[in-house]
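Aim 2, interim progress. The first record below pairs a target sequence with its structure tokens.
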Amino acid sequence: MSFDTIFAIGVEELGLEGREGCSPTRWFQLIEDKRPFGNEGKLPLLIRSFLWRSILSRPNDFKLALLGSATSDKSPKKDAGSAKSPKRSKNNDSEPELILIEPTDERVQSLEGGEKMGIRIIPSEEIRLSVLRVFEGKEGRFQISAIQLLALELIGRQRWKGAIQSELSAKLKLQPRNFFYVVKSLEVRGLIVKNPVMVPSLGNPNLGHSGPVATSNIIHLIRFAPPVRLQPGQVFKMVSVPGATGSGTGISTYMLHDDSLHMKLICDVIAETEERMVVESELKIVCGFRGKRGHRNWRRLRSKLLDLKYIETILARHHGKPVTCVRLLRPYDSTSGGGGGGGKGG
């Protein structure tokens, strides 16, 4: 493999890292994850040095910097032999505060020196836009907003793993209803694809066989989209994968979760009754929703069926006592069950 090919891979990986860039060590790991080199998959020291020199020789495409928030004890002192003192980049809501280091600085002429300083390689906006393919998608002739670009960079940085919509909304400090329009705009441009996913609820960091869950969307750049096309009633579900803490590109830690069989069972059981209406507590038992876990699953499926207008709940009297009943409005259709992510966490 030629050096030009290796460097092209490196440029793409840097572009996906976004406006904060990454350290040389992480950059080399990203390249190694993309293409194995030798038996151990490690980049030879000679190649690493060439890559570093290539970064230094392209000041218009790459900047060297220290993150402002992490430089209290690493801020470089002005040496008598230094050509220029470090400059701070302008800081705003969407740009990290950076202390720029000139590529001519003697301390970064060697790869080892740059790594000791804690240098980060920052790709230019042109490279980031190119790697994210902003101008290749639909509506590419229209300028992308700052918040849309920032969201797109955060999604791209997750690569195959994808980004959770609710987590992105929180990170960007946007209300979910407002962030919805950001995601919708990126979808219209043809830059991302989203799929429903079950994630741990607040206070339940580990999604195992128990514990409350919520429904959100998993978002990928188009080229990292999952190869599986979800059918009506299907969602992805986060799973714990031991050792799945890769250095960079990340792996998908989601499994396919299909609600359609349970939803069909609920509708079929109600349809078998003469009045097409049953007591909710009895329906739960007949369909096998027992215990805390069963109750949570029932609430989630009931919410989906209500949203999709398959059932309705009413208050009726049974043996002289008021009880909640479930009435079937229409037979379940697995081909148009739709809205795999419509349920609410419970």
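The second target in this work package is listed in the same format:
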Amino acid sequence: EISSFRHAIETYPIFDTPEMIGFSPNHDFQLNSNHMESMLQSMMKAYDTETVSRFTSQFDAAKVVNEMMARFPKHIEPQDVKDSLSKGDGGVTSPINIAFRNEIEVMAVVASTVRASLVSLQNALRGVATFTIELTILLDEMKVNQVPKSWVQKAWPGWSLAVWFSDLISRNDQWRKWQEKGRPISYWLGGFSNGAGFVNSVKHEFMKKQKSWALEEMEILTEVTKHEAGELKGPAESGVYIHGLSLEAASWNRNLGKLADLQRRAMLSAMPTLLLCPVPKDMKKYDYMVYECPVYRTQSRGTQNYVMTVDIRADEAASKWTLTGVAMVCSKDL
């Protein structure tokens, strides 16, 4: 009898599987990936500067800096934005347009900081300026594809310099198109440095249109559409469209329009466009089960990265998705 117990114990896995506590098996894959990334970063920090230089000997600093300067987005003048908004939807004082102007101010600070760093680095590499300690640190961070800390302090988090810089260009493009062509049909939520502020501005704007509504009594009613942002014919009549979100730890069944389990060895699933409709609390009703899904700026969750909560259809109990850790993210940790 004892031998049967021993045999049963020996069949247990050495490491507990995520399924034992209700997690998706994909959590193991993500955990191992995070451990590997952390280990590589620690190894690079442990080596001295000379050793790191040998690892990055193929890095052509002058070429990289010149390419970044060539791609650098053109500055958007705040006065041009103000002039455009005065002729467009809602005017300069519209809550959504105020959120837009705030984003322009953030972009101006970020762009100025990054451009000044690149120009100084360019001059130092050409030999017309001295390499300061700050420039040396900046170059060392760029060599290992890290976003310089001096940039992140003025902007948004980033784990890969190449992805972060492309993100900077994409954000600037969204603001330029808004300034030149008016409000977009759908808003790229991940492009906002203050996504929560934008969502609040949407509620505030619709409250002003419905004079009998109070801001503290308003909530967001959510609908997941079947369309991508480029397929929309026009702006929403009773809310705003947002896009660029991804589901983490679950997927979205586009045919049935509901939450589904994620495929093996995948952690993110792209979402179609979402419709956000500000309504009073007593009007926020669904004729199907919903999961209150938190939305974060990045996969690094936390209060500082929380944006909002959206209601999405789920035919299974919400507790399953909560235990699985299902959430939406505006951008990936890359």
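The chain has eleven helices and eleven strands. This observation will shape the mutagenesis plan for the next reporting period.
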